[in-house]
């Protein structure tokens, strides 16, 4: 259902026909006044067209040039974020994997050597505890015992200093 | 409509040009732009009444057209499609300007007052100075009257009266119904008739 405004506009522009046209014209209270307004609207249209049409653009070549530059610049700008965006997204993952693998390898190597060294040390500590237990502080208060281990880890040298008397069980028989 | 090519030539080669543009051919876009540049600029100028703004908005419109030409499916004519971009860009700009309330809209009109009618800076054999002055005054009156319309009403009246576009084409370009176009046309005409009657009755 068209509103009055829509019908009026269509009538002015000659877009009404048949029953719709007859019906609309019959509904007009003053057809002469309506026809005058129609002519007036057509005058307005012709006047606007005469006055406003054909506004030429100055310096068309420069307009083209400027637009081409903007299109090219836009294309370049679109490429730069793509490239810049790709690196941060991919490199840290690769780097992270390599750094992790290298760290793990270094940790494994260090652990291996530390564990290999640990046996004799435990053993030496054990011997020291035994010796400390055997030296009587009441008899030899200034006694010190130092321990050296050979490079092969098979031989332990005990250096005893300030010992007043040997414990009875170590006495030379 | 007043395109540079005949309608048949325009229809055939226009689709080819659009396809070439979609493949990234900037030369083809240059040709398309050449066909619509004058009309687009004229349409924008009649809406904003300032040559520099019209230039910038025409640039903006064509740049948007280039960026989105890949989405053009040929369901409407190319010129309807580009007019949609043009009117969207221009109406957005007018609305932002309205919100900001910045400066005088009639930069050209203000400058014209300062121009000596007898100036020989731009010599023209076809009009005498007083005729040019009169012409500028008429133009200023028209611009003032159009400026009193909302951006949507401006677009509708200009598309209909200057571009000779059909209701459905205007509706497509503005993204509204045909009924809305007709209704806007009704009010825009009424307003301009009231404001400009003395001019077009006497000129």
Walkthrough of the structure:
The complex is a heterodimer of chains A (173) and B (203). Among the domains of chain A are: 1-55, no CATH class; 105-170. The termini of chain A are far apart. With 173 residues, chain A is mainly α. The longest helix of chain A is centred in the middle third of the chain and has 75 residues, at 60-134. Chain A has helices spanning 4-12, 18-27, 31-52, 60-134; strands spanning 144-149, 156-161. Chain A is built from four helices and two strands. In chain A, a hairpin with a 6-residue loop joins β1 (144-149) and β2 (156-161). With 203 residues, chain B is mainly α. Chain B has two domains: 1-101, RNA polymerase sigma factor, region 2, helix turn helix motif (Rna Polymerase Sigma Factor, Chain: A); 148-196, Arc Repressor Mutant, subunit A, CATH 1.10.10. Helix content of chain B is 74%, strand content 0%. Chain B has helices spanning 7-22, 26-48, 51-68, 78-100, 107-113, 129-147, 151-161, 167-174, 178-202. The longest helix of chain B is centred in the C-terminal third of the chain and has 25 residues, at 178-202. The radius of gyration of chain B is 18 Å and the shape is globular. The A-B interface holds A 2-3, 5-6, 8-10, 12-13, 15, 40-41, 43-49, 51-58, 60, 63-64, 66-68, 70-72, 74 and B 2, 26, 29-30, 33-34, 37-38, 41-42, 45-46, 51, 55, 58-59, 62-63, 66-67, 138-139, 142, 157-158, 160-162, 167, 179, 182-183, 185-187, 189, 192-193, 196-197, 199-201, 203.
């Amino acid at each position: 259902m068209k509103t009055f405004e829509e019908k009026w506009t269509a009538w002015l522009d000659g877009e009404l026909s048949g029953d719709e046209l007859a019906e609309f014209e019959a509904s007009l209270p003053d057809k002469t006044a309506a026809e005058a307004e129609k002519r007036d609207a057509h005058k307005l249209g012709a006047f606007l067209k005469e006055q406003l049409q054909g506004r030429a653009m100055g310096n068309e070549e420069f307009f083209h040039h400027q637009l081409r530059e903007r299109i090219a610049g836009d294309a370049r700008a679109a490429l730069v974020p793509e490239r810049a965006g790709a690196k941060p997204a991919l490199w840290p993952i690769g780097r992270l994997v390599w750094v992790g693998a290298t760290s793990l390898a270094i940790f494994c190597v260090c652990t291996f050597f530390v564990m290999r060294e640990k046996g004799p040390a435990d053993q030496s500590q054990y011997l020291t505890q035994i010796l400390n237990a055997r030296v009587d502080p009441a008899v030899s208060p200034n006694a010190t015992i130092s321990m050296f281990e050979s490079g092969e880890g098979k031989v332990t040298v005990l250096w005893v200093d300030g010992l007043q008397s040997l414990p009875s069980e170590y006495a030379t028989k | 409509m007043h395109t540079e090519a005949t309608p048949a030539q325009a229809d055939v080669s226009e689709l080819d040009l659009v396809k070439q543009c979609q493949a990234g051919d900037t030369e083809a876009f240059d040709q398309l732009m050449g066909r619509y540049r004058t009309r687009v600029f004229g349409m924008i100028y009649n809406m904003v009444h300032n040559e520099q703004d019209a230039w910038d908005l025409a640039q903006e419109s064509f740049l948007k057209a280039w960026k989105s030409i890949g989405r053009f499916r040929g369901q409407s004519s190319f010129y309807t499609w580009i007019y949609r971009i043009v009117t969207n860009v221009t109406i957005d700009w007018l609305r932002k300007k309205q919100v900001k309330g910045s400066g005088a809209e009639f930069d050209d009109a203000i400058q014209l007052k300062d121009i000596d009618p007898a100036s020989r800076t731009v010599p023209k054999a076809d009009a005498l100075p007083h005729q040019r002055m009169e012409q500028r005054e008429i133009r200023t009156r028209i611009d003032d009257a159009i400026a009193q319309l909302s951006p949507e009403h401006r677009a509708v009246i200009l598309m209909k009266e200057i571009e000779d576009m059909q209701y459905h084409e205007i509706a497509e370009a503005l993204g509204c119904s045909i009924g809305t176009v007709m209704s806007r046309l009704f009010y825009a005409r009424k307003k301009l008739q009231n404001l400009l009657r003395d001019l077009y009755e006497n000129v």
